[in-house]
Amino acid sequence: MHIYTHPEFLNHEVAEGHAERPERLSHLLAHLQREGILSDSPLRQPNDVSDAQILAAHSLEHLQFLRSSAPSEGVVPLDPDTWMSKASMNAARLAAGAVCNAVDDVLTTTENRVFCAVRPPGHHAETGSAMGFCLLNSVAIGALHALQQPGIERVAIVDFDVHHGNGSVDICQHHPEIMVCSSFQHPYYPNRLDDLDQPNIVNTPLQAGSNGDVFRRAISSSWQPALQRHQPDLVLVSAGFDAHQADPLAALNLTEADFSWITQQIVDVANQHSQGRIVSTLEGGYDLDALAKSASAHLQAMM
Ligand SMILES: [Zn+2]
Question: Which residues surround ligand 1, an ion (CB under 5 A)?
Answer without folding.
Answer: 161, 163, 240, 242, 284
